[in-house]
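Q: What does the assembled structure look like for these inputs?
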Amino acid sequence: DADVTQTPRNRITKTGKRIMLECSQTKGHDRMYWYRQDPGLGLRLIYYSFDVKDINKGEISDGYSVSRQAQAKFSLSLESAIPNQTALYFCATGSAGNYGYTFGSGTRLTVV
Amino acid sequence: DQQVKQNSPSLSVQEGRISILNCDYTNSMFDYFLWYKKYPAEGPTFLISISSIKDKNEDGRFTVFLNKSAKHLSLHIVPSQPGDSAVYFCAADITGTASKLTFGTGTRLQVTL
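A:
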């Protein structure tokens, strides 16, 4: 099993629908992150969490919400999806003092 | 405002030659830098890093150089191999604070035969 698992791998949804992307990890890391990748824009941070009770907004959090259900689980929700949220979404984990993150394989989301 | 920039979207290099990928940053508070490699349909994987107290870090065929005064880092791959064909992201962080990496826009490297 992968260290960081994202589900679903691919999803097509309609404008206005609510959708949840899920992430779970077996690394035992305390820190979890959600990034989105867009062509020409690289990876941009949406939300991050340093433990179950600590949730922080990243640079592009508008239109998104997150839930840290357990140390190993961090989900990202789009309450009302819009087409410009079409992107590749990555979950990552890390630990204090270790600056290398472990990424999941990504979720390709298309909003039509 | 892009704090970490990779001005070359793509680079093509012949097998066996040197690949040089560049990255510039604007935030002088950044003091730790990383390179990630990404293959299609996979997540980015950590490649190499460097602290601002150093100007060079080497790991096998990969070397990262840091020029703090120019706010510039580069990744050298010698010799380049076809399996190195991927998208490379540089990333920066501020140590001593809550870690949240800021990534560049990526450079697609193609190593040709």
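Chain A touches chain B at residues 4, 31, 33, 35, 40-45, 48, 50, 56, 58, 90, 92, 94, 96, 99-106 (CB under 8 Å).
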